[in-house]
Amino acid sequence: MERKSSRLDGVYASILARRGTQGRLRRLTIPTPETVDFSSNSYLSLSRDQDIWSAYLDRLQQSPANQGFSLGSGGSRLLDGNSAAAEALECTAAAFHGAPAGLLFNSGFEANTGLFGCAPQPGDVVVYDELIHASVHDGIRLSRARGISFAHNCVRGKSRTSLDHVLSELTQGQDGHRLRAGEINVFVAVESVYSMDGDLAPLADIVECVEERLPNGNGYIVVDEAHATGWLGERGRGLVCHLGLEDRVWARVHTFGKAMGCAGAIVLCSPTTRQYLINYARSFIYTTAMGYPTLAGIQTAYEYLESGRVEPRLAHLRSLIKHTHRLLTSICTRHQPPPRDVVLYTKEGVPESPIIPLFTAHARSLAEYLQRRGFMVRPIVAPTVPAGTDRVRLCLHAGNTMEEVQGLCKAIDEWVAEKLSESGEPSEKPSKL
């Protein structure tokens, strides 16, 4: 029996149609196996590594029933879902990243909403980078704190939107005396690697700025290491460890669904903060805990990183980053396309991460062109990114080859030439890259 559509369905259909005419309609797709992946966040290509698969299956087979093996946990960790495996994994992750303690969450999104939703107390302030992940925004909305943004990666300078200026204004404002006295807390939220631009936070400068403006120790820095975990720093420990800032950053969020090829996340913090989150983080309290197969996968990935076997992959990934940048720079140097067509990078030098944005007003056109040639890339458009900053987001992986990068850049070269030809702009023919 066919169900009649409701009036609400009509409202939704109208809203979706309007978004479709704006070219912003989101759709689910399934990548075909033969396409070359330049899109996913699996930077180390670990999810399909045969050695890790074998180690993971061995761990599952060798786990006796008295260690709590089951397909699912059976409940939240505060009820029946806790296990020795979960607590052992928290100890493993905390030790690997040089933290006192850690608490597992089912995803990075839940880690951020749980942490920011309960950590700030009434009257506290969250100061965040304007490009911070949506999950932090949602966490702030759930909290009892006021949120204030600062310009992306702008720490000091004359800009009224720099972190330094925002903190200075706070200490001089209505509650300035309480801030200076340490009675009000300021949480400063940044990402170590920004997922859409691929640039790194100037974390050492951020730490120094916060400590200078809030000398009474009421400035608490939270670093989302989601896109750094597994590949950045020694054995993939992340930016905080790479810079030796473990004791000067209040909390870190590491996720396992990207370079580590698993699922889930952990908040690294003090033992007292861990206990507080257990009692007040709603996304921890009211959700079913991860089952043993998920925990075993994360533990296996950590053992792989700790063993040092990841180093050849990291070396290859760094080579791919440099090679890709050289090829893309060559394309733009030869064609000199107008800025609105393709802008490869906004900074001097080689990209800082495996994420390389190709800024273009024709992001969907470029993505579709590359997809037809067997390369999986995605257009990223407003509102996911600010209006006027549409781009195709390239993600490099340790599993990619130099030949695949060569083919991708050749296809980009051809697209640029065709686009310039259509617009009547002079352009060189694509050449052998």
Automatic annotation (TrEMBL):
Cofactor(s) listed in the protein's UniProt record: pyridoxal 5'-phosphate
Family to which the UniProt record says this protein belongs: Belongs to the class-II pyridoxal-phosphate-dependent aminotransferase family. BioF subfamily.
Listed Pfam families: Aminotran_1_2 (PF00155)
Entry's Gene Ontology molecular function annotations: pyridoxal phosphate binding; transferase activity
Alphabetical list of InterPro entries matching this protein: Aminotrans_II_pyridoxalP_BS (IPR001917), Aminotransferase_I/II_large (IPR004839), AON_synthase_class-II (IPR050087), PyrdxlP-dep_Trfase (IPR015424), PyrdxlP-dep_Trfase_major (IPR015421), PyrdxlP-dep_Trfase_small (IPR015422)
Name of the protein in question: Putative 8-amino-7-oxononanoate synthase-like protein
Annotated Aminotransferase class I/classII large domain residues: 35-412
GO process terms (BP): biotin biosynthetic process
Coiled-coil regions, chain positions: none
Keyword field: Pyridoxal phosphate, Transferase
